[in-house]
From TrEMBL:
Pfam families: Ppx-GppA_III
Lineage: Archaea, Methanobacteriati, Methanobacteriota, Stenosarchaea group, Methanomicrobia
Domain Ppx/GppA phosphatase C-terminal intervals: 15-158
Keyword check for Metal-binding: no
Molecular function terms from GO: pyrophosphatase activity
Domain of life: Archaea
Keyword check for Membrane: no
Origin species: Methanolacinia petrolearia (strain DSM 11571 / OCM 486 / SEBR 4847)
Key words, A-Z: Hydrolase
Protein name as catalogued: Metal dependent phosphohydrolase
Amino acid sequence: MNFEDSAEIQNCLGILEAYGVDTVHPAHVTKTAAVLFDCLKELHHLGESERRLLIYGSLLHDIGWSISEKKHHRHSMDIILGDKSLNLNDRERTIVANIARYHRKALPSDEHENFSGLSPEEKNMILVNSSILRIADALDRMHMSRIEVAGCTVSGDSVIIKCRASGISMYEITALEKKSDLFKQVFNKNVRPVCLIEQKKK
């Protein structure tokens, strides 16, 4: 699912607008998540159908703000599960709802009702995609869309994320350290952002 020209993406953006949720941050996070998914295929071995659900989860991860900032990740899950205007079947809807629910706070657990009954394959899909979404969300902690991910490489026990930005603030660094917890659990890799600073022409 290409971000720029997908009717499904435009549908999601329209739904966000209908709920009164700003689309700029979700759109930027989605682009980042898609880049990370693509360059981490050697680690997760997932395909296009799983990528599509990551894009849905990324676009809709903050839709719960329409109810409240507090526990908005849980509100996002509830909205996704209940909104039938999304172009998703029941299985896909449950997976997307879980991806959005786990973009912050608690990690996926069999103690959680909407996660525990899923198959091992579905749980893995949620773990991988939620871990990527958490990283993408952390890199736009300030909601300023100022960090563009150019790609990433796997080096030993680390994943190096190549960012185009004038610099990464302490807000993003702190958020990345906090929200890389699931990524470390899933892939057994640390996350290291590296800024690619372009030289200004004289």
